[in-house]
Amino acid sequence: MPKRIVFFFIGFVVLASLAYYGFNRWKESRAKVDLWALVPENAAFVVETNNHLALVEHLQETGLWENFKTLGAASKLEENLAYLDSVAPGSQRMERFLNQKKILTSMHVVGKTDVEFVFYIPVNSVGEHRFLRTLTENISKSEVYEEDSREYQGVLLTEILNTRLGTTLTFFTYHNNIIISPSSVLIEEIVRRISRGKLTSLAANFKSANYLGQPDVYANVFINYRELPVVMGLFLDQELMPQVRYLSSLCKEGMLELKLERDKIFLNGFSEPEKLKRSFHSNISPVKPQPLDVKNYLPNRTAFLMHFGLEEVARLRRQYLQKEAAGSAYGAVVDSLAHAFSKEVALAYMESSSMSVSPEKMVYARMGNIDRVERLLKSLNQRVSYARNKKPYVEKYGGYSIQLIDVPQLPAKLFGTLFSGFEQSYVVAVDDYLIFSDEMSSLRSLLDDISTESVWGKSVAQKAFMEETLQEANFSLYINTVNAWYILSRYMESESREDLLQNASLIKRFNQVSMQFANVDGQYYTNFVFRKQDQGPASGAESFATELVIPFDSRIKTRPYPIQNAVDRSREVVVQDSANVLFNITASGKRGWTDTLRTEVRGGIKQVEYGPDNKLLYLFATSNRVHAINNQGLSIDNFPFNLGDSLNLKHLAVFDYEKDKDYRLLTDDNLGNLYMYDIRGNAIEGWQPRRMDYRLAAEPQHVRVGGRDVILVLLENGYVYALNKSGDTYPGFPISLKSPLTSGAVIKAGPDLRRTEVTAVTKYGNVITFNLQGKVLQREQLLRPSKSAFFDLVQESSNGRSYVIVRQDQGRVAIFDQDLNQVFEKRYVTSAPKIVQYFHFGGDNKIFAVTETGPQKTFLYNSKGKLIGNTTLENNQPVTIYYNEAANDYSLYKVFRNELKKINFKLPT
């Protein structure tokens, strides 16, 4: 009897223990787990969603989903979901299972080379458990999948291999949640995190920041700024990583809301400052946000802009002083100068025309006291000049003075190491901004952009974009992805460049990007905008719409010359008929002034500002005269210049050496003689005539280098001359390119003659680069398929900053970019030479016009060589194309027989 009692007692204890254990396991399984606590601390981004279907539907409605699917990781995920959906039980498909759940997705860098994701999915009901169990059973039976299980630290891990895609997924369940990832390494890390216990949420500082309940919010996005350099290091060249690491140290983590609109992505929220010593935040704190007033001086061709809005700009230089000793021969003056700027400093990179070309960069610093800055600059320049036994160099350009401050890394000493890379600094004061560049030519181009109002503050598209960004910030990064394309390619790791090209359509689609941080009550209000420039109504194909048809009594024999209205600067054209009458056609399509000439216009029509009211004059040459007329078609005083009845002029070039409206007019005849006059009709000594050995291949070109004016003359026989203002030849010239020339050259101005590079293309495809000391730096031969093939260098029509090389061979036309890569090739009906034009309106906004003079047809192509509109235009002259930024469309002027037509067209979105 006692033994039986003992037996029953032991049995009761065992049953009670089992019941207690089972109850606790059941209770644990029912306990809700904060999924954020499972996320490893090395997650760079975490996205929390609660309405999967709504998010996907909105992405599809806005057209973003199709673009996201171009990303390799996104397409693989979609393919995997499609396969899983095919084996899912009944009507309970994957989308229904995933919908209406708070799902986390974390992104990690694995092995310092790959990006992987982890998905954290709650299982909320018995039905969902049943669905998962049936799904795993179906997977084990499917021919598509191979399944394997293993135990890791007491947790059962299941791996499934998709034999069709070659992809693997690893998952495990924890407290009614399934954690799944393509990376078994990340899954094991999460298991170890659970085993250690005392789980803390990665987003503990943002417990109250749940934006999912707000209208139009589709996700919470957590950013781990400490991991950003690791992510960026996968893609960017290592030389950029010190700057990336420093900028990332503004904040340590942030929680942002995700909003989606048509062609826009918004991320808004707050970020916690990084308070570690020597962080970006610690160096600039405390800070008050400042507006982007510098927008009125930023060219539309800006690709990258870093803008710092600080009351005390000198705080930025703490980064430099932490690494470099402050003392130097000019330390005291530099220190005083650094404290003379306030509110704004910005670093801008301009659009590059080639991956092999370093982008122009400029620094903008707002002067707190203009007189004080001028005094300090003068003092610094005098000390530098005295130490180097050189006179201070100052160049007049328009109403501005450009100075050379020959202090290496001056912007870095003033504003921190982010502003490094300036061997010397050219500076110009524009209103209350001092602008730095390491190249004189960059400042000249900038001043031209400001004078023509080709700046952000006047750009319709850029103003619309900036209205959606923060109006005041401490740090802002602006990117125009289209303008920045070659820069991105240049500074990408070679392994990542292929991915960049594969995702080009998505990257360029969102061409306007801003990332901003504004200090608010100890946190940074954070705003990211990814925006596609307004395109107007989307269309599936290009279409041509004739807006204007103007008939003339006589046949038109010239192209529509592009001009601006002399008063309001609106865009107009001028044509000349067979009776040698010039007709001005206004922007509204009406006939303006006329001018009857003896012969045809030679070399196009130039425009210059002249007189006290700065109205535009029209300058052009005929067979033996140079004309200048006003906006009423009347000749101004002293014009026309009569050069001699026996002359046969070919080109007219107009130079303004110092942008002070003291113009020089240089023309050449069919014998290679050069004639130069000033605007008052006075002959310039040394040019009456300046005889060349042969006819000119193109219009003479001017460049100013280190205070010297150089006039570059290319002859058809392949000889190149570099002449000074008096017509004398510079040392080292002439040089022979040893092959005929049929086109002009592209000049990249440097600080001196040695570092100024000129690129020319010979008739037979030899691409030659030489400097202005007459030294050939490089020769490359383009493929010449036959002896009949010939080449031209074609500069873009508006300002000639970029160019392409054109090869014509027996009816085929091939276009090469500046890196000598073939863009496209087309075949045409006739073998006669074609008129090839290149229009570049910034970034990928390029149009190529190829005109066959025999069939009298013009073909228009986009940047990828696709025929625009799938049609041709009747035409036998060069065309004129204007880009209308506000409407994002184009106006084309063409002539055919006795008609001028204006045609509008839009490229598809």
Q: Please state the average pLDDT score.
A: 87
Rg estimate, integer Å:
34 Å
| Low-pLDDT segments | 6-30, 536-541
Q: Helical element count?
A: 19
Q: Count the E strands.
A: 54
End-to-end separation: 92 Å
Strand content: 35-45%
Question: Structural class of the secondary structure composition?
Answer: alpha+beta
- Helicity, in percent? 10-25%
Give the overall silhouette: globular
**Main sheet specs:** 20 strands, antiparallel
Explain what the structure shows.
It comes from Pontibacter locisalis. This is Outer membrane protein assembly factor BamB, contains PQQ-like beta-propeller repeat. With 909 residues, the chain is of the alpha+beta class. Among the domains are: 180 residues, no CATH class; 260 residues, no CATH class; 95 residues; 87 residues, Thrombin, subunit H (Beta Barrel). A hairpin with an 8-residue loop joins β32 and β33. α12 packs antiparallel against α13. About 3% of the residues have low confidence.
